[in-house]
Amino acid sequence: MNPILKNILAVVLGLFIGGAINMAIIMVSGSIIAPPEGTNITTAEGLIAAMPLMEPKHFLMPFLAHALGTFVGAFIVAKIAANDKMTFAILIGCCFLVGGIMNIVMLPSPLWFTIVDLGLAYIPMAYLGGKFVLRKSK
Fold first, then answer.
1. DSSP readout, the chain?
2. N or C, which end of the chain has less CB nearby within 10 Å?
3. Could you report the per-residue pLDDT of 75-88, keeping only the tens digit for each?
């Protein structure tokens, strides 16, 4: 297969599968860690209203969703890419980072979560995803 097409396919698959994992974890998070009493987190308005009532435990699943989605997406792209595997893994991390920034702008969260999420869930996880593939291939 043409290396350019292979790299494009790798990026598309990495974004799609990483995003699907992110969404799946977010969808089940309410059944794993119950939202604060009397809140409706099924709408953006309800989630914004519930934010002041949330404890640190309520931010664990969103962080895991962001981190695991990015990790898997970067792993997939590094596994499939024809060349520059780490570059493409970091590209996935940057794409998810942009999504994370957009999410924080639309849905304000506590400063501590913003720092942890933006600082640890995207670029470091993309690096680890790429590194796993590079170690296995040696």
1. --HHHHHHHHHHHHHHHHHHHHHHHHHHHHHHSPPPTT--TTSHHHHHHHGGG--GGGGHHHHHHHHHHHHHHHHHHHHH-SS-HHHHHHHHHHHHHHHHHHHHHHS---HHHHHHHHHHSSHHHHHHHHHHHHHHH-
2. C
3. 999 999 999 999 99
